[in-house]
């Protein structure tokens, strides 16, 4: 058993504190990872604040994990000590249902086991990447290509795969017009990836204050949604809209921007319900869909794609003592574009 240093929170209104947590002894197929960097995701904030339901505190969030293998179980075949690896939003699944067999473990019929705020197959609560070490079965560990720095790799394990998966599934590529709603941690990755796939990319943001960044990331166009003329000008334009924001928006207004058979995909997860008028869908055979991260195979594919196209998130590396302040800054959109914790500061 490894005693790991961590940062934990004891309630929805509590600050993070230094803590120690136990990591299980290695099972036959387990990998022990020394975590070098952990990204801060908006999901961490929702969960830590108890906005997605009851939480078993104390909680150690973090599902954007990059580190080094320091030990392996006796029957591990995929990894060895010294390998550069990552762990994303889930650490196990049933492995037997139709979706798991397809490599879509995120949609496991029995429910995947989340990296934190879940219960593992041993009946113990899962704790995440704001810690020095983690033990994960080798099937839920991915290899980080050598040309991706570990601090930049961390956000790819959630923000990267969360945007890559719907772009991949709905066929973003040459000849396709893609809109990305929001230019935050998820949105800036969606722009970079969609551009690398060869699509024409438009950013839809509340204001134009990040326009220069958006164009630098690969967007062809950038519009302010606070300008009512935007929705008139772009009506019926897009094949695919990726909505990355975790807040209530006027779905009907955005659906009007889709062309015939266009799809709007929600990857942001607001705490409050969204509503729409079905006439927004019926008129042009439009679809409204959701997408949840990606399977392990697709996550590895995403990492290889990012390595090939030199795609990395824009990050700000912080010390562990700065987590509370980072949460406040995320909520006020004061980050360009992803906070990453240097776990050596735990």
TrEMBL record:
Record bears the keyword Metal-binding: yes
Stated family: Belongs to the zinc-containing alcohol dehydrogenase family.
Protein name: Alcohol dehydrogenase
Protein's organism: Terribacillus saccharophilus
Keyword Transcription applies: no
UniProt domain Enoyl reductase (ER): residue ranges: 11-341
Pfam family, one: ADH_zinc_N
Cofactor dependency: Zn(2+)
Keywords: Metal-binding, Oxidoreductase, Zinc
Lineage of the species this protein comes from: Bacteria, Bacillati, Bacillota, Bacilli, Bacillales
UniProt-listed SMART domains: PKS_ER (SM00829)
